[in-house]
Amino acid sequence: MKITMTVNGKTRSGEAEGRTLLVNFLRDTLGLTGTHVGCDTSQCGACVVHVNGQAVKSCTMLAAEADGAQVSTIEGQAAPDGTLNTIQQAFQDHHGLQCGFCTPGMVMSATALLKENPKPTEAEIRHYLEGNICRCTGYHNIVKAIMAASGQDVGAIAAE
Amino acid sequence: MPKDGIGASTKRREDIRFLTGAGNYTDDINIHGQTYAHFVRSDVAHGKINNIDTSAAEAMDGVIKIFTAADFASAGGIPCGWQVTDRFGQPMQEPKHPILAEGKVRHVGDPICVVIAETLEQARDAGEAIEIDIEELEPVLNMKDALKDGATKVHDDLTSNLCYDWGFVEENRDAVDAAIKSAHHVTTLELVNNRLVPNPMEPRVAVGHYARANDEYTLYTTSQNPHVIRLLMGAFVLGIPEHKLRVVAPDVGGGFGSKIYHYAEEAFVTYASKVINRPVKWTSTRSEAFISDAHGRDHVTKIELAMDENYMFTAVRTDTYANMGAYLSTFAPSIPTWLHGTLMAGNYTTPLVYVNVKAVFTNTVPVDAYRGAGRPEATFQLERVIDKAAREIGMDPAELRRRNFIKPEQFPYQTPVAVMYDTGNYHATLDKALEMTDYANFDKRAAESKARGKLRGYGLAHFIEACGIAPSNLVGQLGARAGLYESATVRVNATGSISVFTGSHSHGQGHETTFAQVVAEMIGIDVSQIDIVHGDTSKTPMGMGTYGSRSIAVGGSAMVRATEKIINKAKKIAAHLLEASEADIELKDGKFSVAGTDKSVEWAGVTLAAYVPHNYPLENLEPGLEETAFYDPANFTYPSGAYVCEVEVDPDTGKVDILGFTAADDFGNVINPMIVAGQVHGGVAQGIGQALLENTVFDENGQLLTGSFMDYAMPRASDMPSFDVDHSCQTPCTHNPLGVKGCGEAGAIGSPPAVVNAVIDALQRGGYNVDHIDMPVSPSRVWAAMQQG
Known about the structure:
The structure holds two protein chains of two kinds.
Chain A: E1 2-7, E2 10-15, H1 22-29, E3 48-51, E4 54-57, E5 70-72, H2 86-93, H3 103-116, H4 122-128, H5 140-149
Parallel strand pairs in A: 1-5
Antiparallel strand pairs in A: 1-2, 3-4, 3-5
Helix pairs in contact in A: 2-5
Chain B: H1 15-19, E1 35-41, E2 47-53, H2 55-58, E3 63-67, E4 104-105, E5 111-117, H3 120-128, E6 131-136, H4 143-146, E7 162-168, H5 173-181, E8 185-193, E9 205-211, E10 216-221, H6 226-238, E11 245-248, H7 264-276, E12 280-283, H8 286-292, E13 299-307, E14 313-325, E15 352-361, H9 375-393, H10 397-404, E16 413-414, E17 420-421, H11 426-436, H12 442-451, E18 455-464, H13 472-477, E19 486-492, E20 498-502, H14 511-523, E21 530-533, H15 551-578, E22 585-588, E23 591-594, E24 600-602, H16 603-611, E25 626-631, E26 640-649, E27 656-666, H17 673-693, E28 723-726, H18 746-765, H19 779-788
Parallel strand pairs in B: 1-12, 10-11, 14-15, 20-21, 27-28
Antiparallel strand pairs in B: 1-5, 2-4, 2-6, 3-5, 7-15, 8-13, 9-10, 9-12, 13-14, 16-17, 18-26, 19-20, 19-25, 22-23, 23-24, 26-27
């Protein structure tokens, strides 16, 4: 079947089977490989995108379910000239990523968190990231980056 | 010094692509005409394959070819890269590890056949239609049972399930026994070092592409060491000469050891691409990763620590059963032996050490190096037994360690277990950690917790590791079938920019930034002028890759040596341009000047002259500015540190909360403190994961019960505390040019004993007579121990 959706502000179409997952449609059909697949049980969160403004794991949604939806992925977060947005910049400033594989999902989840809760506490950030697994950073600098992106003082979190 | 030179927390340049979805991971690579491979794997732990019927599957839409072991009759098995000699002087038993199962399956996940189809869905559908008749055999699971007479064998052609019985230092065996017999006090501890699944977030992927017109193969793979894969697969498995085989490891999403090894899937896609004359792609699912990536740890150990009347350590004896799994993964035999036994002196002056390791085949997934690799197993048993000893004799655990530490003035220090530590200051790191954690006031905090009905505990561990792997001639004597040097080519371009081609491989470590900082510092140009290229055998010189915290210590040293050659040649060119003696030329801040004069030439002026050699000493100097160096380390490096964990245990539930985790490390000189801190954070998180959460459980049939992220407890953000890390105690390495020791594994080595020591401390302070709980120290285990204690 033909699926059409608005991805990062542009209308995109492609063919998909009924069983095609949104993440595979984005990666394989539309070539948006920034969204990653890190598991097959909807645990890791590497595939988080926004659908109609809500953060979703794109491995738990069929492409057909997103027909006609507004989809936002990691590729659409920086400014058109490549300037990182506030959250992306905070991740770089605070070393909130190492191998980069979980990073797109982390950034998309962090974006959703700050929309819901513009000044989260450290505990709220850690709780919110329950569905995003990172194996490299121990989360310390991810938490710090999100807190910094929200405009809060990160001095309370140990210096490095 | 340029602002982004050595010692600067330069932001990582690689982050830009990772933060914008522009990374290029192996699964992001798609080649025109690509086909998809689906592996059909054993769902039993041990069995005889009676029949494989692929006829229905072959007739299905999109199926191109189905491969079985018969298609690989001419290929070699997956080779093992290290041969251990046992304590009787005999080589280890080394079974064949076929690409696809030959007649028998030996673990859940053992690949039996592979479907290649036009789409992944078609390949999977066809895989479901293959009928495999397997006669189940009794699985070999328990290591001690596996060594009993008459035990079922994993490999029929071996004499038993024993891979090797290793003793080290064998000549000390009797002396250690005697020292233990005559000791004033002996502390004994039996423990399990739990099996872990490395689980980098990026599952493994391999794309094979054969170009018939040129008879050239390209393998894109999620590897920490593309040249090692090229050598092992080309020379030992498929018989492809190196010049016809290119291995590319692009952006790799974490490794932690599990992407060192040459895996069957890599050989498969490379070979199959030639057979069907189309590219072949395989992407592991996470479920597949759990049963096909090499696991880590899995030791069962008894350790004895002997002390004299002054509580000085007089001997350590340890007996370990190490699980190899069903086959020998690339470096598996070396992990419980040379990467484990050589660390059993720890930070201490113990004069006599004897380590016995029995490596055992079982019907489980193969086990190999996982972050730390042998050193966490050594550190855990030593730091746990010391803590237990301190409690038995009623001494402060910090004091017992301190009195047995090698003293700063004793370096270089020859241990009784072969290795010689070049530098260290264990008193400094211990004092730093105690100060950072306000050890002096712990009792007040414990009282405050007690008032809230909680049990507070303070856990300390001190560790040593051997990194910067490794002197080639030494490891050759120990059984390595590879050299462990590293390489770098520094290519200076005509306008002065530089491309460095390194044999190290970055899969999260940030080499593109730190390596550039080093060259920027040496030449005095802006870091933006330097690019680091890695991960492609067609670009970089033969290199051994990244593991064992070796990149900056070995790869960085090769880069320094190559850059020194560049500078030496550039000085000759500058001397010519400035009409001065080469001996008078100084390089500072990217400018060559003649000492004592105002005559100078910029870096870019010299590089341009090298490539446009009009005014150039052509009679005695070649044009161009490109140099290669291979660096073989003279010794290992020995990072060390003191780790402290403070916990609260809920006596009603047994739940352990980590209140704080502190790491005071000595990594020698540090290139980028921000990145070093990040490496420690990640290592500590993996160590806390091992201590509190992670475990790999097989049932009595050999089925993996913890086969997904729903059952295997990966640490989440809410499981982790903030970390307090310090690396201000620095005793630089004496034998490499940067004075660096490496920082990648430290966190995973020092943290498990710190966590468990803290839990035991909490329970004992709470009046519970509990002296050990095996990892993971889960609420149920803590609660059960409290009921008995």
